[in-house]
Amino acid sequence: MAYILYSVCLVSLIVGTVLYLTRAHWVPYMPNRIQDAISGLSYTRVPTTFMGDVESGFTSADFDLSSNIVEGDSRGGLDQTAKREVQRLMKLRGINFDEARRVYMEQRFKKNGIGADGVPRDPKFVSFS
Fold first, then answer.
1. Is there a domain that residue 61 lies in?
2. What family does this belong to (predicted)?
């Protein structure tokens, strides 16, 4: 009986270790709610200034924060919630900042009933162009 219990514990330990070490490969294929639960287990500090944002990779040629730093902008940097989500996307999917921003905005649009083209999906919506 003790041998069976020892074997089950050893197999569980090996499988758990393999899953942990290869999580970067299989987590992106899981549903978002499970990804959120897994990513919530590890804490990564999000910067609170524009300089911190640049140092953490939250900038690009298309989204340049250098003018905010040069001009001495006293605000607290970018939105904390958005930064956490963009950082999570960058880590899990292995994508750059611009791509993570695009994916984040598409997710926000979809959640709020807006199409990828920026037009609301509400059937009562009327637009005059």
1. yes
2. Belongs to the UPF0357 family.
